[in-house]
Queue: 3 jobs
Job 1
Amino acid sequence: MNLTDLIKKGYFPQELPPPFNTDSFADKYTKVKEEWNKFDKSIKSTYTETKYISISIPKVGFSRRFLGIPNPIQFGALSEVICSNWDAIQSIYMQSKLSASKPIPNGAKGRSVKTVMTFGQFRKQCLIDSFDKVYELKTDISKYYPSIYTHTIPWAIHTKATAKEKRKDLSMLGNQLDQFVHQAQSGQTIGVPIGPDTSLILSEILGCTFDKQLKTKFPFIKGYRYVDDYYLYFSSQADAERVFKFLQTLLTDFTLIINEEKTTIKKFPFEFQAEWTITLNDFAISEKPKSKADDIFNFVSLAFKYANCYPKDSVLKWAIKKLAGTQIEKENWELYESLIFKMALSEPAILPNLTKILITYKSFVSKRKLSNLIKEFLTIHVAKGHSFEVSWTLWIAKTFSIKIPKKLADSIFASNDFASILIALDLKENKLISSNTSLLIKELELASFKDERWLFVYEAIIKKWLRPTKTDLLSKSKYFMILKKLNVSFYDSKRQVEKLNFSKEKEKRLKVDSTNTVFTKVDPIDFVKKLKERQKTHEEKVTDTITNIVVTYMPND
């Protein structure tokens, strides 16, 4: 595992708007650590515990979850421990024959690690391997990441008895991991932050430990686990029930519980793929501009129908991805734009997809409609503290140079949503917000570098968007002074999501438009004459071919 990759691609949650990044921190981490090590223990001890930034994001319908962005000092330390002990961690993963979510380094674009199977591959592999079993036990661990007791990490690595006996021995891998996790959340030992790749790496240490005990106790088990989801297969219901009870007890020993609402034991035959995925996947959208409008209209109507029928499924999130794969002509944009705006209001989780579509078709976008959409989003979500919706909406506003009404801007600056406040300061710098930000000065204090304000305060100061009352504030925060000295930034206003990438052949086909067709005047008499000549030539060729066939296959006398 490469340390630079883990910090660069595995630190900030992927759900954040594009300006938030850790590239410069990753590239300069070795130098940051070198400078930090020059300070004595009395300085370092003041950074023993910090608090992570909490970002509220939508799941499906009204349900939400909270992402966590740890302070860089603890995240860097945790990443070092993981990378230095990657072989030992992998040896724990290898003990599981059930895990489909073992993290492996991801050399391509995207995150620092990827799971050994995608969720779709996991589902298919379960069916492939369970061909001779008719009972399925499906269950999951309730609120897995938020419920992990950090002290159970050393239990899983060293056994519970050893870990308890040597809980202060920091030469042990489990204790090191435990320490940096709970230090990054104000000393709290319940939960690991959702978002960073380090949490997947840690959760798999636990998951693979559960798998090993399950498979040892019941070697006849078939199926797999994907993060917190178990799909297991048996010859009888009695076997499925026995395994379920054992798993319940096992998880309880690690202070975790089964999600009983999502637990089922079924006997085949039964539907294992939701109807909406099959129907929407098979829905063909024409490439002909005239037919395309009707197809898009019908597709979105069908997607809305299924979103109501399957309220716990990400129907609209799936549907917007399919729509994004269809290239849109100017003549169909007005309808398409209105439909995707309505989809976004209905399911805000698709805002990153919407942003990508809007940037791709920037010249088509109606700023009037987009401005109204932005106001609607902010009116709905600012008061509710919905960080994801507010931050992405503000980023879209900046991208299209749309001004935010003062009343809405004031409510953003008065909130505790510091990620959104940072983007709002960016808009103010670009004269898209006119609100007075003097009340934010009180947030610029030394303690803020160790709590959920650290990113906002650091970036606001180094970019001179806010000026602290005490001019030496940053220099008093030794770690962040090092970051400033090395030109580390976590917010780049020039970054942007990538445009949609259409295949060259498809792009070429779709460029052929009726407005670009060239017509040539033809003399009707000459045209008919040439047509008859071509017909005569064709008839002669057919006659010659038939004659050759007859001669070739004629029997000898």
Note: The two ends are 82 Å apart (CA to CA).
Job 2
Amino acid sequence: MIEALDAIVPPKRPSDKPLRLPLQDVYKIGGIGTVPVGRVETGILKAGMTVVFAPVGVTTEVKSVEMHHEALEQAVPGDNVGFNIKNVSVKDIRRGFVTGDTKNDPPYQTASFDAQVIVLDHPNAIMAGYTPVVDCHTAHIACKFNKLLYKIDKRNGSKLEDEPKQVKSGEGAIVEMIPTKPLCVEAFSEYPPLGRFAVRDMRKTVAVGVIKRVMRKVGDKLVSSGNADAPQAAEKKEGDEPKKEKAAAGGKKKAAAKDGDKAAAKPAAASKDAAKPAAKEKEAAKPAAKEKEAAKPAAKEKEAAKPAAKEAAAAKPAAAAKEGGAKKKAAKK
């Protein structure tokens, strides 16, 4: 166990990327000034840097950086810091804005973004025009589902259908989304913490997504950032049946086997039914057999009585002759 723990390589903090710090709150402290507070997601924040707040584009200089009331030389990803800035009012910046370095890939307002969305729990279907609240980093802004570009397989990301009419629970899609208010987000491939979002509606999370491509407003131009490639269509191998067809075939086989078992069981049931009258006759014959058994001793007595009857028959002439002799003697006298 200890060896396995020792072998785990700790994740590298993205300190080599350009600065991105979403604001959690903005305070006005007497004697110090405006103090924005947030967590450094990527890059490094140092005192003396010139930073810009997107999407409004306010630029200022960082006077000092503090964490837990202690001054820091620099803040690295994961640090919750407060930093003092010059000449910016509390009303100019607020929660949900993103701080970046003006010299190294500064953040810009997002005009629109393409995202891979997976619908988790929605009572109806999601269609173009749906406008729920999107929670991305510290921003909570309503975004419109402008176009459903592709329906995708949520497991491997392969394309299933172009421009679907609707997306239901359990399905995935690539969607073009337009914020209803100024918003700053980034592509997941470039800045992962700013490229994940949840879609909230009806007091629950109805969908989650990752941002594939962002259209930034740079002056009067729109600049694309992130991966703009369309998902690949799912390849079908020859001889491979879709899962549904396989399941249907399996179901048919099971049904056939069941029907065969039923058909085989029917003759057996019929023979069983045919055997019932015979069994009844057998049951009815039992008393007769008992009477027959009871009659056997009487027959034996009858057989035994036959010789006695013969002897009686044989004795009758002798008795008759005896009686005749007696009568003759009486007459002589």
Note: The radius of gyration is 51 Å.
Job 3
Amino acid sequence: MAIKSGSESEIMEVVVQRVRSTADTFSVYTASTGDKPFDRATIKQFAGPVREGQRWALAGNWAEDPKWGRQFVAQFAALAVPRNEEELQGFLFSGLVGGWAHRSTWRVFDRFPGNEALEVCANAPHRLLEVDGISEDMVKDLQMAWRRGAGMAATYAQLTDWGLKGKVCDNLIKRYGAGCIDSLTEDPYRDMLEIERYGWQSAESIARAVGIGPRDPRRLTAGLECAIHERTWAAGHTWLPIDVGVASACGLLGVDYPTVRPVLAEALTRGHLVPEGTDVYPAALHEAECTIAAQIAQRLDRHALITPTEVAGMRKPQALSDDQWDAVLTALTTPISLLTGGPGVGKTTTLRFLCQKARQLGIAVTCLAPTGKAAARMAEATGVEATTIHSRLKIVPGVAGDPDDIEPVAGLVIVDEVSMLDTTLAAAMLERIGLGGQILMVGDPDQLPSVGPGAVLRDLLAADVLPRVHLDKVYRNEAGIAVNAKRIRDGETIVSLDDCQIGAAANPDHATDLIVDRLQSLLAGEYRREDILVLTPTNDGPSGRYTLNARLQPLLNPTPAGTGIVQRAGTSKDPSGESTAHAEEIRVGDRVMVTRNNSELGVFNGQTGTVLDVQVPRAIDVDIDGKVITFAGEDKRCVTLAYAITGHKSQGSEAKIVIAPIFPSRVLSREWLYTVLTRAKERCYLLGDEPAMQACLSVRRSHDRRTGLVARILAAANVDAGEGV
């Protein structure tokens, strides 16, 4: 039966009669639309799969199709809330409600027989946790599906009319519930920075629809907040000069400076921004810097697990240099310390001996790294199980957590690849490692700074309050890779050597051809595809990520074309500003990368994996660090081909062979070239424009980042900022 909603869309509830075509993102079927036998219609919806007999709640409009005639096109579609036990079973086993379509679901009906199961699902879903195999996440998924199908069609219809869809609508309804439309009509900008996937463009779309003008104080205030957040994250800063922040807001809002500047005072009262003198911080970054400084001060005041007297009689192993042994003793006898050095200087050997010595002394050892691959390398090198920081400490980006909810981390905690830690991750990590944990942070200060805001390792070194051992004697790979790594650190011109070859390419197209030829040659020899890492400065261009992945996929994956899921890889702009969309096909066996954090799936930007199964066009199953993750619906866009990745995304990775095309680009820097070079364990091939390679040496990205961490650390440790220690 159809009714009119308050929006432009029509709301109806239908029963599926005959399915013509159905998939995860698109279905066409014939349905009954009323009580009379002839009340039928063709329904086209962007959801599925559908089955005969199901009831669906729809919101959309009628349209004339040149071939199929009159159809109802549903922009919103959800399974209607079940009315009896039979419908409840169909609802739960539909495959459309989170993780419910498995054997554990039957236990619900054993535990709550008859219509009791329906009553529990509708009014007391927390009781479902009494059933073995039913998790909290499953209950949350059920509640969301129930809301979608229980009278929320009108709300979804209005959100759809405003240009929103999918997970954005779900998240808004989670936030506001039945009052969603009223809340957004009153102020679509109010909670914009706190709702996942809801951003400036979505808020602007609603604002235009409800009549909020370009100079409305609500818009100006939110625009200032949004611009400062976006500018700091894009540039890697933790703060901006207030005038720079206001100027950024002018660009976002399309209004002049005198219009924006007066709303600053109001913006500072809302809690999203924190002023310090003539500067302004996003509140989360300000809090993170304060947390890092306080944690360091507290840890420096604590006693170490082992006193210097207790290790005074220990003999240095012959396999260690004096500096390496000093690093072992420092890690054991100080509550928090640093170990730094480039590739081949013996950090791995030092950590292996440190872990052995700690266990001999009865000290528990926990090894952590920012990525799964870095953790796997760490475990292999030390002989101690290593996990990601996120998984061990239960850190989920965008989700506030209680440090008291995790299993305490005590003993010696070794954190590798510290250069990858941004300000928010470093703060969460330190806060969640109990003060009983003694921390050694290990990193290479010459690598690229973190993808997120801040330059944590740079600032820890600049503050100079932590005990630190720096290793600089190269023990392995005395040839090209280590030699050129040192030359890059020193700002000297790199040279072509046997295991670090520099090859000229006339242009980016030529470089791509050379990469393909080189790969074919390597694969014909002793190397496998897992041994080779192709890194590029940019996503677009003839030697960018999109082009390289398209060229390398048929070479590295034998799965035939046409068997996978085709989706958008991204967009690029030509010099005239014209945008071009790039498509890619994800197939079984492909190497893929996660492109954004997804708290629901528990995956993080930069993680890589292998596609195990593709359910066209519904879902992609990916093995990530030994765990199978299913990306379905909109979540499929979280993964992209990763035969070639950008240098920034390569942090924490390592391969026997690294190949990189290099041409003039705004992203090139000394840290970029150093990071790319040091991903290689055996050989590195740099192909392209040699002047561009050498020009990298004069650009230092990490030095450009604005942070307040050094001053906070010194203040918390009661050290004069001009004095140092």
Note: The radius of gyration is 28 Å.
